[in-house]
Write a structure and sequence with these properties.
Layout lengths: L1 H27 L4 H16 L14 H21 L4 H8 L1 H13 L6 H18 L9 H21 L5 H15 L1 H6 L6 H25 L4 H4 L5 H14 L5 H20 L2
Helix pairs in contact: 1-10, 1-12, 2-3, 2-8, 2-10, 3-7, 3-8, 4-6, 4-7, 4-12, 5-6, 5-7, 6-13
Length: 275
Protein backbone atom coordinates (compact mmCIF):
# COMPACT_ATOMS: atom_id res chain seq x y z
CA UNK A 1 0.00 0.00 0.00
CA UNK A 2 2.73 2.50 0.94
CA UNK A 3 4.47 1.87 -2.38
CA UNK A 4 1.22 2.76 -4.18
CA UNK A 5 0.89 5.91 -2.06
CA UNK A 6 4.43 7.00 -3.00
CA UNK A 7 3.69 6.37 -6.69
CA UNK A 8 0.51 8.45 -6.40
CA UNK A 9 2.36 11.40 -4.86
CA UNK A 10 4.91 11.30 -7.68
CA UNK A 11 2.16 11.02 -10.30
CA UNK A 12 0.15 13.90 -8.80
CA UNK A 13 3.29 16.06 -8.88
CA UNK A 14 4.12 15.19 -12.48
CA UNK A 15 0.74 16.23 -13.88
CA UNK A 16 0.98 19.86 -12.61
CA UNK A 17 4.63 19.86 -13.70
CA UNK A 18 3.49 19.12 -17.25
CA UNK A 19 1.06 22.04 -17.10
CA UNK A 20 3.78 24.25 -15.63
CA UNK A 21 5.94 23.48 -18.68
CA UNK A 22 2.95 24.34 -20.89
CA UNK A 23 2.55 27.66 -19.08
CA UNK A 24 6.24 28.44 -19.60
CA UNK A 25 5.80 27.67 -23.29
CA UNK A 26 2.93 30.11 -23.69
CA UNK A 27 4.14 32.88 -21.33
CA UNK A 28 7.88 32.94 -21.97
CA UNK A 29 8.14 31.44 -25.46
CA UNK A 30 4.93 32.80 -27.00
CA UNK A 31 3.74 29.36 -28.13
CA UNK A 32 0.03 29.10 -28.94
CA UNK A 33 -2.11 26.98 -26.55
CA UNK A 34 -3.40 25.03 -29.56
CA UNK A 35 0.11 23.79 -30.38
CA UNK A 36 0.83 22.96 -26.73
CA UNK A 37 -2.33 20.85 -26.48
CA UNK A 38 -1.75 19.10 -29.81
CA UNK A 39 1.93 18.36 -29.10
CA UNK A 40 1.00 16.84 -25.75
CA UNK A 41 -1.38 14.42 -27.45
CA UNK A 42 0.99 13.68 -30.34
CA UNK A 43 4.03 12.97 -28.17
CA UNK A 44 1.88 11.03 -25.71
CA UNK A 45 0.69 8.83 -28.58
CA UNK A 46 4.30 8.13 -29.61
CA UNK A 47 5.29 7.28 -26.02
CA UNK A 48 2.38 4.88 -25.48
CA UNK A 49 2.24 3.26 -28.94
CA UNK A 50 4.98 0.61 -28.35
CA UNK A 51 3.00 -0.86 -25.44
CA UNK A 52 -0.41 -0.98 -27.14
CA UNK A 53 -1.82 -4.26 -28.52
CA UNK A 54 -3.25 -4.34 -32.02
CA UNK A 55 -6.70 -4.94 -30.56
CA UNK A 56 -6.78 -1.29 -29.49
CA UNK A 57 -7.50 -0.19 -33.07
CA UNK A 58 -10.95 -1.80 -32.91
CA UNK A 59 -11.99 0.85 -30.40
CA UNK A 60 -11.76 3.52 -33.10
CA UNK A 61 -14.87 2.06 -34.76
CA UNK A 62 -17.03 3.07 -31.77
CA UNK A 63 -18.46 6.62 -31.83
CA UNK A 64 -18.57 6.66 -28.00
CA UNK A 65 -14.79 6.39 -27.88
CA UNK A 66 -14.53 9.43 -30.17
CA UNK A 67 -16.98 11.35 -27.97
CA UNK A 68 -14.94 10.54 -24.84
CA UNK A 69 -11.67 11.55 -26.50
CA UNK A 70 -13.11 14.87 -27.71
CA UNK A 71 -14.24 15.69 -24.17
CA UNK A 72 -10.68 15.23 -22.91
CA UNK A 73 -9.16 17.09 -25.86
CA UNK A 74 -11.47 20.06 -25.33
CA UNK A 75 -10.60 20.10 -21.64
CA UNK A 76 -6.85 20.14 -22.27
CA UNK A 77 -7.23 22.91 -24.86
CA UNK A 78 -9.29 25.01 -22.42
CA UNK A 79 -6.84 24.59 -19.55
CA UNK A 80 -3.91 25.63 -21.75
CA UNK A 81 -5.76 28.85 -22.64
CA UNK A 82 -6.38 29.53 -18.92
CA UNK A 83 -2.73 28.85 -18.01
CA UNK A 84 -1.53 31.52 -20.42
CA UNK A 85 -2.66 34.27 -18.03
CA UNK A 86 -3.68 32.67 -14.72
CA UNK A 87 -1.66 31.31 -11.75
CA UNK A 88 -1.18 27.54 -11.73
CA UNK A 89 -2.87 27.06 -8.33
CA UNK A 90 -5.95 29.10 -9.34
CA UNK A 91 -6.34 27.16 -12.57
CA UNK A 92 -6.14 23.79 -10.80
CA UNK A 93 -8.59 24.88 -8.10
CA UNK A 94 -11.13 26.00 -10.73
CA UNK A 95 -10.43 22.85 -12.76
CA UNK A 96 -11.43 20.70 -9.78
CA UNK A 97 -15.05 21.44 -10.51
CA UNK A 98 -14.56 18.36 -12.75
CA UNK A 99 -14.91 15.69 -10.02
CA UNK A 100 -17.92 17.59 -8.64
CA UNK A 101 -19.66 17.57 -12.03
CA UNK A 102 -18.69 13.94 -12.55
CA UNK A 103 -20.34 13.08 -9.22
CA UNK A 104 -23.59 14.71 -10.36
CA UNK A 105 -23.52 13.20 -13.87
CA UNK A 106 -22.71 9.72 -12.55
CA UNK A 107 -25.64 9.91 -10.13
CA UNK A 108 -28.05 11.17 -12.80
CA UNK A 109 -26.93 9.19 -15.85
CA UNK A 110 -25.21 6.08 -14.48
CA UNK A 111 -27.44 5.72 -11.41
CA UNK A 112 -24.46 5.52 -9.06
CA UNK A 113 -25.39 5.90 -5.36
CA UNK A 114 -25.14 9.44 -3.93
CA UNK A 115 -25.86 9.84 -0.24
CA UNK A 116 -26.84 13.15 1.37
CA UNK A 117 -23.46 13.59 3.12
CA UNK A 118 -21.48 13.13 -0.09
CA UNK A 119 -23.83 15.50 -1.90
CA UNK A 120 -23.25 18.10 0.82
CA UNK A 121 -19.47 17.67 0.54
CA UNK A 122 -19.64 18.12 -3.21
CA UNK A 123 -21.50 21.39 -2.64
CA UNK A 124 -18.75 22.44 -0.21
CA UNK A 125 -16.17 21.79 -2.93
CA UNK A 126 -18.25 23.78 -5.42
CA UNK A 127 -18.30 26.72 -2.98
CA UNK A 128 -14.52 26.44 -2.86
CA UNK A 129 -14.30 26.71 -6.64
CA UNK A 130 -16.56 29.79 -6.52
CA UNK A 131 -14.22 31.42 -3.97
CA UNK A 132 -11.31 30.93 -6.37
CA UNK A 133 -13.10 32.07 -9.52
CA UNK A 134 -15.29 34.76 -7.84
CA UNK A 135 -17.50 35.40 -10.92
CA UNK A 136 -18.45 39.05 -10.99
CA UNK A 137 -16.58 39.84 -7.76
CA UNK A 138 -13.00 40.53 -8.82
CA UNK A 139 -12.14 37.11 -10.21
CA UNK A 140 -10.38 36.87 -13.56
CA UNK A 141 -12.58 36.22 -16.59
CA UNK A 142 -9.91 33.90 -18.00
CA UNK A 143 -10.46 31.51 -15.09
CA UNK A 144 -13.69 30.71 -16.91
CA UNK A 145 -11.55 28.65 -19.28
CA UNK A 146 -10.34 26.59 -16.30
CA UNK A 147 -13.94 26.07 -15.18
CA UNK A 148 -14.86 25.02 -18.72
CA UNK A 149 -11.88 22.64 -18.73
CA UNK A 150 -13.13 21.15 -15.47
CA UNK A 151 -16.62 20.69 -16.94
CA UNK A 152 -15.19 18.86 -19.94
CA UNK A 153 -13.05 16.75 -17.60
CA UNK A 154 -16.00 15.91 -15.36
CA UNK A 155 -17.97 14.71 -18.37
CA UNK A 156 -14.88 12.76 -19.50
CA UNK A 157 -14.62 11.01 -16.11
CA UNK A 158 -18.27 9.96 -16.31
CA UNK A 159 -17.82 8.78 -19.90
CA UNK A 160 -14.76 6.79 -18.80
CA UNK A 161 -16.82 4.95 -16.19
CA UNK A 162 -19.54 4.38 -18.79
CA UNK A 163 -17.11 2.92 -21.33
CA UNK A 164 -14.53 1.22 -19.07
CA UNK A 165 -15.71 -2.22 -20.17
CA UNK A 166 -14.73 -1.62 -23.80
CA UNK A 167 -10.98 -2.08 -23.39
CA UNK A 168 -7.98 -2.24 -21.09
CA UNK A 169 -6.65 0.99 -19.55
CA UNK A 170 -3.71 1.14 -21.97
CA UNK A 171 -6.06 0.64 -24.95
CA UNK A 172 -8.39 3.39 -23.74
CA UNK A 173 -5.49 5.78 -23.09
CA UNK A 174 -4.07 5.16 -26.56
CA UNK A 175 -7.45 5.68 -28.24
CA UNK A 176 -8.02 9.07 -26.60
CA UNK A 177 -4.49 10.27 -27.40
CA UNK A 178 -4.63 9.11 -31.02
CA UNK A 179 -8.07 10.63 -31.67
CA UNK A 180 -7.11 13.96 -30.06
CA UNK A 181 -3.90 14.06 -32.10
CA UNK A 182 -5.83 13.46 -35.30
CA UNK A 183 -8.58 16.00 -34.56
CA UNK A 184 -6.19 18.77 -33.44
CA UNK A 185 -3.65 18.15 -36.23
CA UNK A 186 -4.75 21.16 -38.35
CA UNK A 187 -4.60 23.51 -35.32
CA UNK A 188 -1.22 22.14 -34.34
CA UNK A 189 0.25 22.64 -37.81
CA UNK A 190 -1.20 26.14 -38.20
CA UNK A 191 0.35 27.20 -34.87
CA UNK A 192 3.78 25.61 -35.29
CA UNK A 193 6.32 27.77 -33.40
CA UNK A 194 9.77 28.70 -34.65
CA UNK A 195 11.99 25.81 -33.49
CA UNK A 196 14.43 26.41 -30.64
CA UNK A 197 16.11 24.34 -27.96
CA UNK A 198 13.97 25.93 -25.24
CA UNK A 199 10.70 25.24 -27.06
CA UNK A 200 11.72 21.65 -27.83
CA UNK A 201 12.72 20.98 -24.23
CA UNK A 202 9.58 22.49 -22.71
CA UNK A 203 7.35 20.72 -25.26
CA UNK A 204 8.92 17.38 -24.35
CA UNK A 205 8.59 18.18 -20.66
CA UNK A 206 4.92 19.16 -21.03
CA UNK A 207 4.03 15.93 -22.83
CA UNK A 208 6.41 13.69 -20.89
CA UNK A 209 5.42 14.77 -17.39
CA UNK A 210 1.73 14.54 -18.24
CA UNK A 211 2.03 11.10 -19.82
CA UNK A 212 4.25 9.67 -17.07
CA UNK A 213 1.95 11.06 -14.39
CA UNK A 214 -1.10 9.41 -15.93
CA UNK A 215 0.74 6.11 -16.49
CA UNK A 216 1.95 6.10 -12.88
CA UNK A 217 -1.63 6.77 -11.84
CA UNK A 218 -2.75 3.59 -13.62
CA UNK A 219 0.18 1.69 -12.08
CA UNK A 220 -0.76 2.86 -8.58
CA UNK A 221 -4.38 1.80 -9.07
CA UNK A 222 -3.15 -1.67 -10.02
CA UNK A 223 -1.45 -1.99 -6.60
CA UNK A 224 -4.16 -0.64 -4.28
CA UNK A 225 -7.93 -0.18 -4.29
CA UNK A 226 -9.15 3.09 -5.74
CA UNK A 227 -11.05 4.18 -2.62
CA UNK A 228 -7.79 4.35 -0.67
CA UNK A 229 -5.94 6.27 -3.35
CA UNK A 230 -8.72 8.65 -4.44
CA UNK A 231 -7.99 11.30 -1.74
CA UNK A 232 -4.42 11.63 -3.00
CA UNK A 233 -5.69 13.08 -6.30
CA UNK A 234 -6.11 16.36 -4.41
CA UNK A 235 -2.34 16.52 -3.93
CA UNK A 236 -2.35 18.03 -7.42
CA UNK A 237 -3.63 21.27 -5.86
CA UNK A 238 -0.78 21.32 -3.33
CA UNK A 239 1.80 20.54 -6.02
CA UNK A 240 0.36 23.19 -8.35
CA UNK A 241 0.52 25.80 -5.59
CA UNK A 242 4.12 24.92 -4.76
CA UNK A 243 5.24 24.91 -8.38
CA UNK A 244 3.44 28.18 -9.08
CA UNK A 245 5.23 29.83 -6.16
CA UNK A 246 8.65 28.33 -6.94
CA UNK A 247 8.66 29.05 -10.68
CA UNK A 248 6.40 32.07 -11.15
CA UNK A 249 6.34 33.63 -7.66
CA UNK A 250 2.54 33.27 -7.54
CA UNK A 251 0.96 32.89 -4.12
CA UNK A 252 -2.84 32.68 -3.69
CA UNK A 253 -4.66 35.50 -1.91
CA UNK A 254 -6.72 34.89 1.25
CA UNK A 255 -9.96 34.03 -0.57
CA UNK A 256 -8.15 31.64 -2.90
CA UNK A 257 -6.52 29.90 0.09
CA UNK A 258 -10.00 29.52 1.60
CA UNK A 259 -11.30 28.10 -1.68
CA UNK A 260 -8.39 25.66 -1.91
CA UNK A 261 -9.09 24.50 1.65
CA UNK A 262 -12.77 23.88 0.87
CA UNK A 263 -11.99 21.98 -2.36
CA UNK A 264 -9.33 19.79 -0.72
CA UNK A 265 -11.26 19.30 2.52
CA UNK A 266 -14.50 18.40 0.78
CA UNK A 267 -12.72 16.03 -1.60
CA UNK A 268 -10.73 14.24 1.11
CA UNK A 269 -13.75 13.82 3.37
CA UNK A 270 -15.90 12.55 0.49
CA UNK A 271 -13.22 10.03 -0.48
CA UNK A 272 -12.92 8.88 3.15
CA UNK A 273 -16.67 8.19 3.24
CA UNK A 274 -16.27 5.66 0.40
CA UNK A 275 -14.06 3.38 2.49
Amino acid sequence: MWQAVLIMFIAMSMIPAGDMAGKLLSVEQGVAPAFIAWSRFALGTVLVAPFVPRAAWRLLRDWRIWFRALLLASGIMSIQIALKTEPLSDVFAAFFIGPILSFALSALLLREPAGPMRTLLMLVGFCGVLLVVRPGFGGSANLGWAVLAGCFYGAYLTASRWLSHLGTPIELVFSQLFIATLVFLPLGLINLPTPSAAIAGLTLASAGFSMLGNLLLLFAYSRAVSTRLAPLVYFQLIAATGLGWAVFGDLPDALTWAGLALVIGGGLTSAALRR
